[in-house]
Amino acid sequence: MPPTTPYAGKFGSCAPYSNNNNHPQPHSPYRSGTAPKPAKENVYNGAYSVAENPYDIPQPHSSYRSSSVSSVTAKEHHYTGSCVVSENPYSPQPCSPRQHSTSCPGRAYRHTTSTSTSTATTTTSSSGSEHSCRNNTAAAKARLYGHGITASYGEMCYHDNSLVSASLEALIQHLVPTVDYYPDRSYVFTFLLSSRLFLHPYELMTRVCHLCVEQQRSGDALLDKIRFREVAPKLVQLLTEWTETFPYDFRDERMMRCLKDMTHHVARGDEYSWRAMQQMTQRLIKRLSALGQYEEAVAALNAVAAERPASLKSKQASGQRSDVLSVCDDPFVLAQQLTHIELDRLSFIGPEEFIQTFAMKDPLENHKGFFRKRKTSNLEAYVNWFNRLSYLVATEICMPVKKKHRARIIEFFIDVAQECFNIGNFNSLMAIITGMNMSPVARLKKTWSKVNTDKFEILEHQMDPSSNFSNYRTALRGATQRSETAHSSQEKIVIPFFSLLIKDIYFLNEGCASRLANGHINFEKLWELAKQVSEFLVWRQVICPFDRDRRILQYLVTTPVFSEDELHLASYESEGPENNMEKDSRRSLRSSLLHRENRS
User: Fold this and answer.
1) Distance between CA atoms of 377 and 295, rounded to whole angstroms?
2) Structural domain includes residue 209
3) What is the number of domains present in the chain?
4) Same structural domain, 243 and 328
């Protein structure tokens, strides 16, 4: 498996992290004297109202409960405890994520009916089970494996008390609560996250609900009702964790239909659990509604941003276009507004989208979904935001007519990038560096000669891709440690370089087999995937502490930017071609863009 986090290098080339709450606000060197001071507002201009802004809708909270359901008091305890939905499911555990305590061999037997025993049964090593981790025909036994102990229990294999592999049927059965058992939170999160690599969430939900109901059947209607009443709170707990951690699964109308059927079934056995199901469904619908509003708002903003800038036939006319310095001349304030956009968009990325980027093509993919949206649309929108910011930086630099003005904008964005680094906003930092390193910007030698590049070189060093981004990974680790011991909301901010995070998860998936030779699921791989995604959930839940500036936010998300061809032509207009190849390129670009304008 290729390494994903080779923490190396030194975190000392740039100023250390500090609390920017005391950041001085000196007179900006970029202020022209005539630029209006941006008005501080709390929403995007024209995109949201105070009451309708989907970004301002609070994240739902889940209620995690104990496994005891023997009395009314225990039932009340089930629904009164609460924690943040996006909280790292590993964090409450005193042990590491892979130390799966409630899944350990101590709970040797499951209460199953005769119809389900054959699919997922666990036995102790002394019972002489006819299943083994690596050979299902060998007797289950415990044995030394390196410095730890490996043991098989039915179709589930453990190493040092941590689940490492199992059959798919056993994993599904292990998710099903019973009267005296509820799966560990880390197991619930891990399996719900990665099970979509092997089966559709709808299929998983159908089987789990079916098993949960069938396990309580004894042939006696009265006894069945009593037993289901006892297990109902745990079933509601499982569905609550599912709907609040992976709400986007329920955009599939089949999932909503299954949830509705279970609500009716619960209503026949336990009124208290039925009310909890009703409340859970209401929270889910509210969350999905907020997601729909958000996606519509982003689509509207993108439509405005898609409008092409003025033609470059008249450089003087293009020079009259508003630039970033006329909107915001303070690098710290612009970095704050970029952080707002980053955290806003991060908050709507579902954890399952990371897995669905490389999951097998769903044969039912064309089935009408709850909102008929793609499964990774929010993740893709966030990646598109990174690209937009890079092109915005390049456009702002290439647009001005005067060399002096271009140099000022370069210096301004260098300072913005430094403030992003200090905040912990690595995604905006990398987008700015990418924009400034684009070919149309990099070739402006006369402009760069007027710029002091010392700070820019330090920032480039921090984001240097060599050694698998070792310098950046060290800086990210420093930001994470600061976040864990934060004394202010600002210190909690960690926004990773998102494309690299996706790449790490992708190569973790590609570098490890999902199934072992005996057909078992490689659960060690699933633990690692869940570990990386759960860290993202911690970063995602941070609320941006900075004041919103409507004018700046509107400019950043809607101002039209140049395409790659338009950037090259703007660069040639700013500083003429230096050789015949560039002359030919400019001539070709002019002809091509003129042809496009005539066609449009």
Assistant:
1) 9
2) yes
3) 2
4) no
Amino acid at 17: Y
Nearest to 529 by CA among 8, 97, 84: 97
Please state the length of the chain: 600
Distance CA 40, CA 544 (A): 15
Residues 462, 333 share a domain: yes
Banded model confidence at residue 503, pLDDT cuts 50, 70, 90 = very high
Q: Supply the CATH number for residue 512's domain.
A: 1.10.840.10
User: Are residues 398 and 494 located together in one domain of the fold?
Assistant: yes
Q: Are residues 405 and 267 in the same domain?
A: no
Residue 133 pLDDT > 70: no
CA dist 598 and 77 (Å) reads 69
Rounded Cα–Cα distance for residues 1 and 423 (Å):
33
Count other C-beta atoms under 10 Å from residue 464's C-beta.
14
Q: Quote the CA–CA distance of 320 and 172 in Å, as a whole number.
A: 63
Distance CA 71, CA 267 (A): 18
**Mean pLDDT taken over the chain:** 76
Strands 142-145 and 148-153 come out as antiparallel
**pTM for this prediction:** 0.74
Which among 37, 545, 48, 53 has a CA at the least distance from the CA of 337? Answer: 545
Q: What's the Cα-to-Cα distance from 512 to each of 2, 169, 187, 189, 440, rounded to whole Å?
A: 9, 21, 19, 20, 40
Instruction: Answer whether residue 497 is part of any domain.
Output: yes
Both tokens assigned to 220 = 């006696």
Residues 416 and 531 in one domain: yes
Domain span at 333: 324-360+375-562
Q: Is the pLDDT of residue 379 over 50?
A: yes
Residue type, 287: R
For residue 1, being part of any structural domain is answered with no
Q: Are residues 235 and 336 in the same domain?
A: no
Helix axes 185-194, 221-245, angle to 10 degrees: 70
